[in-house]
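Posting this for the archive.
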Amino acid sequence: MARRISRPTDSPARVQRESTRAASEGAAADAPSEAAAAGSFAVPKDELPCHVAIIMDGNRRWAKARGLTEMEGHSAGVEATREIIRNAVRRDIGVLSLYAFSRENWARSDEEVAGLMFLLDKVLRNETEELKRQGARVRLLGRIEELPPADRLSIEQALDATSGGTRLQLNIAFNYSGRTELVDAARKLVAQGLSPEQIDEDVLAGSLYTAGLPDPDMVIRTGGEQRLSNFLIWQAAYAEFYFSPILWPDFGPDAFDAALLEYASRQRRFGR
């Protein structure tokens, strides 16, 4: 029997989960030709994004199309994540932000939420040494204090163990919400006693979960949907967006390279 999940009191899920869920998600999208487009990769570093953010979507649809359970889909998504992290290091991407669990995801069933928490704990315990070898430094984006104690401990241990990483800043957005992030930033500034005149964009940015990091140059979303879903809504103001129909478990290094090639072909104007 799945353990009962204690959800944050102000989580959107407190209201959402009482209603009937919408019709089940559609069948998995076929992997398009973009996966083959990255056959030869030769892009100068200064044409690549420094910070790539990814909304990893499609695990459940991938599983449903194969007659598998939701958790088997999420487990397959973990395997895809491992390969993308390795490829990000290979391509010398400085910052990689992965949207793993939103505060809205508390609306899912107790069984699925408990399974996702279990996967987080398992991945952090099993992958920390590999992340250290890759030169990755882990940072959590989200309200860690709302997570179960055991999960908080795993996160804190991974943060400490990878603190010396210099090749890749790996941000895991877990129990994350862009709007909640802005609320937390505003509360921090109020607690510091700043006057309205002292608050500008730089001051606010310095109070976000991503303080000290560059904004994402590129936001990738897999699974065919074309929306931000409350992810890095402040930081992504000038990001390039790349939407792929490939479901996350099938989004491998070639598909990632295709996204990087697309980024390199664009001209960023920043309003000019």
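The longest strand covers residues 168-176. The beta strands are 51-55, 95-102, 136-141, 168-176, 218-221, 240-243.
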